[in-house]
Amino acid sequence: MESFNILINLEIKNHEVPELREAVGWERRDADYPSLFEHCLFWAGLRDKNNSLIAFGCMVGPGIEHGYLEDIIVHPSYQGKGIGNALVKKLLQEAEVKEISIVTVTFEEANCNFYEECGFTSCLGGVWRRNE
């Protein structure tokens, strides 16, 4: 597997994550940036040879034993190369450094194998969403 220089707390401009979200077909959520970074325990990112952000993910939570992975994104042009797996593993390594012993993530059923390959065990859980 190729090695990727994924960096923890990579400097990221406010427009870069919304552009990456849009590239994968998600809502941009421009208003979330830069405040998202103030609420993250840490984040990780990867840039291509042109210095464009091509992967991003973050860990949120209280920072005391438990963390939650959020926004695991790899630009469609770079998917299928192992970047997502390397990104998640980098975030989990940082969780160990920070002594976070339980990490959860919510994902669509189609992504179950990906997260299991990254070391997660699927289990029952629930999601509450505010009615819009």
Low-confidence stretches: none
- Main pleated sheet: 5 strands, mixed
Strand content: 15-25%
Helical stretch count? 4
Give the % helix. 25-40%
N-C termini distance:
43 Å
**Elements, N to C (H/E):** EHHEEEHEH
Give a count of the beta strands, DSSP E runs of length 2 or more.
5
Overall pLDDT level: 92
* Structural shape: globular
Spatial order of the strands in the main sheet? Answer: 1-2-3-4-5
Task: Output the radius of gyration.
Answer: 14 Å
- Category by helix and strand content: alpha+beta
Can you tell me about this structure?
With 132 residues, the chain is of the alpha+beta class. Helices cover 26% and strands 23% of the residues. A five-stranded mixed β-sheet has the order 1-2-3-4-5, sandwiched between helices. 21% of the residues are buried. The mean pLDDT is 92.
